[in-house]
Design brief:
Length: 109
């Protein structure tokens, strides 16, 4: 049975979504590169924090899985850190996109 009330999003919606995704990736990479040149101690601190977190998780899990999981996360730790950065930036910009118009527009009654 088909629900005729459901309408698929149009081209403009998909264009907005992908433009936002592209913008956030470019902005995240620009911020990573900028912080690499301007604040290397910030990146070093974030990397150490992530590594200590991986070590703590590996220590909490019983052997033989703890060391295995720790090794895997150490090897792909850089990728995880970048993904956290990108997702965090997207969440922040999404909140701004949702809250901004709500604050600037007059309240509807």
């Amino acid at each position: 049975m088909r629900d005729d009330t459901y309408q698929r999003p149009g081209f403009r919606y998909h264009l907005k979504v992908h433009a936002f995704r592209t913008f956030t990736i470019i902005l995240a990479w620009a911020l990573v590169i900028l912080s690499f040149y301007e604040w290397p101690e910030l990146l070093t601190g974030a990397q150490r924090l992530l590594q200590h977190g991986v070590e703590r998780i590996g220590d909490e899990i019983p052997s033989p899985w703890g060391p295995r999981i720790e090794f895997v996360f150490r090897e792909i730790g850089g990728l995880i850190w970048l993904q956290i950065t990108f997702v965090g930036l997207r969440v922040l910009l999404s909140l701004v996109a949702v809250i901004g118009p709500a604050i600037s527009s007059p309240r509807r009654q």
